[in-house]
Write a structure and sequence with these properties.
Number of helices: 27
Strand order of the largest sheet: 11-7-10-8-19-18
Protein name: CSC1/OSCA1-like cytosolic domain-containing protein
Mean pLDDT: 83
Organism: Chaetoceros tenuissimus
Keywords: Membrane, Transmembrane, Transmembrane helix
Number of strands: 19
Shape: elongated
Radius of gyration: 34 Å
Largest sheet: 6 strands, mixed
GO molecular function: calcium-activated cation channel activity
Distance between the termini: 13 Å
Strand content: 5-15%
Low-confidence stretches: 1-11, 78-86, 922-938
Transmembrane segments: 231-250, 459-482, 488-508, 529-547, 620-648, 669-691, 774-795
């Protein structure tokens, strides 16, 4: 048996693959113009070897693969656009669609509604970006009076009183912030150096003065900037607006999910999942039995059934075996485009030797070691393939949405009412646990049935790893801030934010999740925690309190905030839009590959991860809210960043990122928690910052300075530089003292305004005293409501499930009257897995009994058998070959195909999941089977 990794096949372009350059990406046009140059495309120097049937790889074919298999495409149903009855402009095509004419989604012309083609979660994400862009813009407009106030002499006497638009953007951006340049040194007879030793300490706010007699007197630096009534009222108005906007957005989310879900039909709309099938009932293996049971009991039409078996151990070994074969293939000479799995011992002699230094230093595997690993796996696989695996989950797809809803209405009940289910709705006495499944592309078939205790243990371990990474990142930021160039802290934090998703993905690859939505939610929580910590919490922890209003790059807090916004506005989008690594792979590494598949693999880009994009969204919002009372211009920065993220992410999904699994609304719902947390943080920080003005730890004692301190004083800093000279203390100078204004570091119980503000009257001005309790109780109210909502979301669902069912018939599943079999663009539940090193997914089940439209992808140059791991077991492959011959003969002589098939399948152990589709007109299905048989005989 030959195992071919790439089928060179016919060179004719598949029908539906257009040669019209108007349908090409810009990168392909550039590559086409340069492909005739040997320096760009070295494969031109390689000549075909007819004797060995070797053909040099085609760069154009790889670009074709990139545009038709990596990037999303829509159907061309008119000269200008494609249409769908779902309400959008475009109808998404299957991956690799080659029977129908397709085109790339237009970047500018694809409406928001059609972004739900990539999952309801994607549509919700882009909608949230636009909403937050609008909210932050309006909030910025509401804050304009405060920006004008900060630039006026009423706030800072050293300001010019005018906003100078010609002074440069940075100078303008800092002038309209809370930076206070008006400072004075005031006598502080009671001050001691130990007052400033609390972490993070600073030595630039206290100075020891000397007079001509050698006497000493401590001086303390005072900020002469105060807030007023208008500042307080503007901040309260902005807070109330944002609270209302966020609550409105969360409250109307169900309607938006319904809108996006209805814009594009998917298999989820037609399907259910049974998570507790009778494992000891032989009929549970038979799709026909499930079809008849549902149709007879509920008067519905079943379109397809998938019986997923608990065979994860066997499947994981087969996948590992494929990975090892991939490694061997990569070590083969470039003119060997196939590997003979029946003669591996001979093939490994052709592999390129691995240098000894790589074996020692890099732990690189040799061909011989890989071969012996394959032999060990073969022995384990042979043993496991003799076991009969039990059904673990059943996926049933119906012909209409109304039929699916009918089943859910009858079978989904609260936990406390399970006993009320009618006996005719049970399966041999078993009460089914029924739920809406994930999208077919989002099901993790290798981890579908992992025990809950193992899932929990892995989650705990990855949480610990994430915690250690947070600590490590924080220590790095602290070290940079304490170095000679603290201005690089912003760059360090941005770099950590960019690298965080890759690190977290590596951690989460060890976890077990039944769906991509669950995995995405796990990554969402970890990445958000890391980014919030790196961007805000660590910065707040290591920045001295008195730096809050201080100017100075590397020292001033507001300078840091401005720099972070600038990095998010410029650096991050620039790296994303240029896609440096992706372009390097496509334009440099790909043309230098020796085989077609290796060249194609260079065109596989990163998969769009909506959960990771949500973390970036909430990080920007969290950062904006945290510092908005000191830097109100951040609202405008955030608005621009959200708009740019909308377009850059849209461009990346349509032109750069690989098509990933469709993520449902679970991530969007989880984002509500983080939006609420951002809201609570906004209320808390806005209130505390108002209370803690002027951030200098200076209080007036109300006493005139003693006469003994009259005279001229001089103070030097630690480096011998003069802090002030000839500072005269006279009878009009008041005595000052140190008082900690950092209420965030003060423990108050109960956490109420009265307890928190105890002693704050020493530094507050009249405006602060007037509004302090108003701010306090508004903060308490917001935090209390947010806390109740989050608690209800986290724990209320458990109580809710006891008395109410978690399904509503109007949960976005509007029945437009279309039958499942009439929508070829949506697929079904076919077990498969995507692994590195392979261009196409690996199938994990027999697909001879399904319509080819049930799969959401196709390889136009080869058949599905090449990508099916069931043929990696020799006796299964031989049995399938015989069965197909029987089918072929039966099709010619009689209609006894099904009888032969059932007889043969009964003789084989049930080791792979079973999938079958049912249609009224089976001619198309039989045509597919005939094509399979023809290819098999050839």
């Amino acid at each position: 048996m030959k195992f071919r990794f790439f089928s060179s096949g016919e060179e004719t372009k598949p029908r539906g693959y257009s040669s019209d350059t108007d349908y090409w990406t810009r990168g392909r046009k550039i590559a086409s113009s340069l492909s005739s140059k040997a320096w760009y495309n070295p494969s031109l120097k390689i000549e075909s070897d007819e004797e060995k049937t070797y053909k040099p790889p085609s760069l154009d074919k790889s670009w074709e693969f990139f545009e038709h298999h990596i990037l999303p495409r829509c159907l061309v149903e008119s000269p200008d656009t494609a249409g769908t009855s779902g309400g959008g402009l475009f109808k998404r095509a299957d991956i690799g669609e080659h029977e129908k004419q397709t085109m790339l989604y237009p970047v500018w012309g694809t409406p928001l509604l059609d972004l739900a083609d990539f999952g309801v979660g994607a549509g919700c994400y882009f909608n949230t970006l636009l909403f937050l862009a609008l909210v932050t813009f309006i909030a910025g407009c509401l804050q304009l009076p405060n920006m004008v106030f900060f630039a006026s002499k009423n706030y800072d006497t050293l300001q010019t009183g005018k906003i100078d638009f010609l002074s440069g953007f940075k100078a303008l951006a800092l002038d309209i912030s809370a930076i206070c340049d008006s400072v004075t040194w005031e006598p502080c007879p009671t001050c001691v150096e130990s007052d400033w030793n609390t972490f993070p300490s600073t030595d630039d706010r206290l100075a020891k003065g000397l007079n001509e007699n050698g006497d000493t007197l401590f001086f303390i630096k005072k900020n002469n900037c105060e807030v007023n009534d208008n500042y307080a009222m503007v901040n309260l108005l902005t807070l109330l607006f944002i609270v209302g906007a966020i609550f409105f957005w969360i409250g109307t989310q169900r309607k938006r999910i319904k809108l996006f879900d209805g814009a594009e039909h998917s298999s989820v709309d037609y399907s259910i999942e049974i998570t507790n099938p009778p494992s000891n009932d032989a009929s549970s293996y038979d799709p026909e039995t499930w079809k008849k049971w549902f149709e007879n009991r509920f008067e519905v039409e079943v379109a397809g059934v998938t019986v997923a078996l608990d065979n994860e151990e066997l499947i994981n070994l087969l996948v590992e075996r494929r990975k090892l074969l991939r490694k061997l293939q990569d070590m083969m000479p470039h003119d060997e485009d196939k590997i003979d799995i029946d003669h591996l011992e001979e093939d490994i002699q052709k592999c390129t030797p691995v240098p000894r230094w790589k074996q020692i230093l890099l732990r690189a595997s040799t061909a011989e070691s890989i071969y012996f690993s394959i032999l060990r796996l073969d022995a384990e696989i042979d043993e496991l393939s003799k076991v009969e695996y039990k059904p673990a989950s059943i996926f049933v797809t119906f012909q209409t949405i109304a039929q699916r809803n009918k089943i859910l209405d009858l079978l989904v009940v609260p936990i406390t009412k399970i006993g009320t289910i009618a006996e005719e709705h049970t399966y041999n006495g078993t009460v089914f646990k029924v739920k809406k499944p994930s999208e077919p592309s989002a099901v993790r078939w290798l981890q579908l049935n992992t025990p809950g205790c193992i899932r929990a243990l892995k989650l705990v371990l990855t949480a610990l790893l994430s915690f250690f990474f947070i600590v490590g990142g924080g220590l790095l930021v602290i070290w940079v801030r304490g170095s000679d160039q603290p201005e690089f802290a912003s760059f360090t934090i941005t770099t950590l934010n960019i690298c965080t998703p890759m690190i977290v993905r590596a951690f989460c690859s060890w976890e077990s999740h039944a769906s991509e939505s669950s995995a995405s939610a796990s990554k969402y929580v970890k990445i958000t925690a890391l980014r919030w910590t790196n961007t805000v919490i660590i910065t707040t922890f290591i920045t001295p309190f008195t730096f809050s209003l201080q100017r100075g790059e590397g020292e001033g807090l507001i300078d840091f905030v401005y720099t972070m916004f600038w990095f998010d506005l410029v650096m991050t989008p620039a790296l994303q839009i240029t896609d440096i690594w992706g372009n390097l792979c496509r334009h440099w590494f790909a043309p230098r590959q020796k085989t077609q598949e290796r060249m194609n693999l260079q065109f596989k880009s990163g998969i769009a991860d909506i959960g990771e994009r949500y973390t970036n969204l909430t990080r920007i919002l969290f950062f904006t809210f945290f510092y908005s009372s000191l830097y109100p211009l951040g609202f405008f920065f955030a608005s621009i960043i959200f708009v740019s993220n909308y377009w850059f992410d849209k461009f990346s999904i349509l032109r750069t990122w690989q098509q990933g699994p469709k993520v449902g609304a679970s991530v969007a719902r989880m984002s509500n928690i983080f939006l609420l947390l951002c809201l609570a943080v906004y209320a808390v920080m806005g209130t505390y910052n108002f209370w803690m003005y002027p951030f200098d730890n200076v209080c007036e004692n109300g006493n005139v300075i003693d006469k003994e301190f009259y005279g001229s004083w001089t103070a030097m800093d630690n480096n011998g530089g003069a802090l002030f000279q000839n500072l005269v203390v006279a009878e009009d100078n008041e005595e000052h003292s140190f008082c900690s204004q950092n209420l965030l570091m003060r423990f108050a119980f109960p956490w109420l305004p009265g307890s928190i503000l105890e002693g704050s009257e020493k530094w507050m001005n009249d405006s602060q005293m007037k509004f302090d309790m108003v701010y306090g109780w508004v903060m308490i109210a917001v935090v209390a409501v947010v806390g109740v909502l989050i608690f209800a979301w986290l724990f209320g669902r458990i109580v809710y499930a006891l008395f109410y069912r978690d399904y509503k018939s109007d949960d976005g599943d509007e029945d437009l009257g279309e039958r499942f079999e009439d929508i070829p663009e949506i697929g079904g539940y076919v077990p498969q897995v995507i692994i590195n090193g392979y261009v196409y997914p690996l199938l994990l089940c027999d697909i001879d009994n399904i319509d080819e439209e049930y799969l959401e992808w196709c390889d136009p140059y080869s058949n599905y058998d090449e990508h099916n791991i069931i043929f990696d077991i020799p006796r299964i492959a031989e049995a399938k070959r015989k069965l197909r011959i029987v089918h072929a003969d039966s099709m010619v002589s009689s209609n006894t195909v099904e009888g032969h098939q059932n007889q043969e399948e009964e003789e084989m152990p049930r080791i792979f999941s079973i999938v079958k589709t049912f249609e009224k007109d089976s001619k198309e299905q039989q045509g597919f089977l005939k094509r399979v048989l023809t290819r098999d005989r050839e």
